[in-house]
Amino acid sequence: MTYVANVLRVMIASPADTVEARNAVEAAIYSWNHANAQNKQIILQPWRWETSSVPQLGDHPQSLINAQGVDESDLVFALFGGRLGSPTPGAVSGTVEEIERALEQKKPVHLYFSTAPLPNDVDTEQLEGLRDFKQQIQAKGLLGEFSNVSQLEHEIWKAIEFDITTLDLGTPALDRPNSGVRFQVQPQQEREIRDYDKKGKPRYKTRRWIDVTNSGDTDAQDVTFESAGENPSMIVLSGSLPTIIHANQTRRVNVDHVMAGSDADILRVRWSSEGEPQQQDFHVG
Predict the structure, then answer these.
(1) β-pair partners for 33
(2) Is 49 within 8 Å of 26 (Cβ atoms)?
(3) pLDDT of 82-96, one tens digit each?
């Protein structure tokens, strides 16, 4: 079943020592999609540099990750374990640079620190840098913690629900190109009583008309109707004064037939759109 949805790109940022946590965030995103995407009309698209970035030359790798990942994302989840990450030309680490760039762009950023036991071979210099960064970033908001991936997945769900409520995305709609004026015609007829004979029996006649519908998304201005051909058998009874047929509006055009005509029944519709005269013929016989 197809449905229309808002799509939000979610960047997952972290140093290289948090692979399991990164996997947990991605799993939580897909799990949320499975449970909520259709009824909430929102789809979350995870973005990870190792799987989503496009190989590209011409700039520092971090600058390319910033452009492809941070700049094109709507939400950012950042994770730290026991490392701060590798320095870049613009920041103490790539993950820190991504966090700072997202904050500058006023994007929701959720930052989590692992409280799980550290490995015996932890890099003490990296750990000290991470502790300094955590102390500094505390002044910019609330920080999250997780001791295992199950707890992290729960925290991710909470953050997603919070962001969706805060962003107030509204009802999604298809971005369709302008279709202009599009006429559809449908001949109709109905048998009705004309009068009664001397014996009281009804005498019938057939009343005919054509439903002309503007199925486009632009109003048709100065619309007129006429029979096409040199010797038409169909005559248009509706008024000859120009009218307007708005988008998705139907206009009834009364017609009749004469025995002397020999041409096919063709309704010619003339109108103007954006100041330009238009016409189209429709076979209705």
Answers:
(1) none
(2) no
(3) 999 999 999 999 999
